[in-house]
Amino acid sequence: MKVKVALSRDTGTVSIGDLQLESGKTLRNVELAFERVGSIDNPAILVCHALTGTQNAVGSDEDPGYWAKLIHPGGYIDLEKFQVISFNVIGGCNGSTGPLSESPETGEPYQTSFPFVTIRDMVNAQKLALEQLGIHHLKAVVGGSLGGMQVLEWGICYPNAMDSLFPLAVTPYLNDYAIAFNNIARLAILQDPKWNNGHYSKDSIPEHGLSLARMIGMITYRSGDLFNERFGREQRGPVGVSHEEIAYEIESYLDYQGKKLTKRFDANSYLYLLKAMDTHDIGRERGGWMEAAENFQAPLYAFSYSGDLLFPTKEFKQLTDYLQNIGKASSFEEIETQFGHDGFLVEFEKWGHLIQEKLDHL
């Protein structure tokens, strides 16, 4: 089915000036790349993207965004009722200030001189960018994974700035199991000789390291049942010819996904965003996650996906249970899926209507 988007679609960058980071450092002349779709007279919904996502949540007819089947006229997030805004996060590589950007001090790309950023830094940058766009209140903030982390921080950093929060496929803090996978992915990039301490040229990127990092991620994003059902030990050729052979279809799939990412994503950005995810803990320097959760004012509608290795249901549900216990509006939905963590990117018919119902009753 071809997804139609609203005729009104604006893309570009917003300049927010200098940004004070949590680290105490100042990031100068910050720009955020954005997508804005729908009538500017409609209530605004902010969509926050995941690790390798971009601001193109809706996209165009020729190049649909990653949530185009969720967000369109008459859709679960209805562009006839709402305008949708999405930003490429700081530290990203799709137009926002990040390692690929030119440093005002040197006139050269930052690369690894780019300062470390946190989820809270990303949210603070988005708040300034929204103000530049003339938006001071949001109908909702929605996002999954890294985007879900931003949703939670939005609710705590700016509790009165929205009517509702929709965090998907996330938890109040990143657990050690997920940090371990992030560490392995980082090492894959750092140990690629072409990484060169982050000072690589466009013609000599650490392709092998970034590809391997992506493959590591892909294994955690989906369930073992899905992999087993989809590939069923299907072979592409003989086994035992070479240590470098790609003999099974699952190997070919991972190889393809790894190489595909290297064509559109920067290795240094990948490293910075993984590190930002590691910092995710809504209770950090706030007295713990329960004390931090008391700052939520907008209703919080949480969505978890069965088989999510990185963000388990039980760790997410404890947040909504606590909010309900202290009298704050919240709900929790676990979506049954074989896609595991990636459930928030597919099978919209299973859960999109739940978001639609909540938005319609706000």
From TrEMBL:
Spans traversing the lipid bilayer: none
Record's keyword terms, sorted: Acyltransferase, Amino-acid biosynthesis, Cytoplasm, Methionine biosynthesis, Transferase
E.C. number(s) listed in UniProt: 2.3.1.31
Name the record gives this protein: Homoserine O-acetyltransferase
InterPro entries: AB_hydrolase_1, AB_hydrolase_fold, HAT_MetX-like
A Pfam family per the record: Abhydrolase_1
Pathway entry: Amino-acid biosynthesis; L-methionine biosynthesis via de novo pathway; O-acetyl-L-homoserine from L-homoserine: step 1/1
The UniProt record lists the keyword Acyltransferase: yes
One annotated GO molecular function: homoserine O-acetyltransferase activity
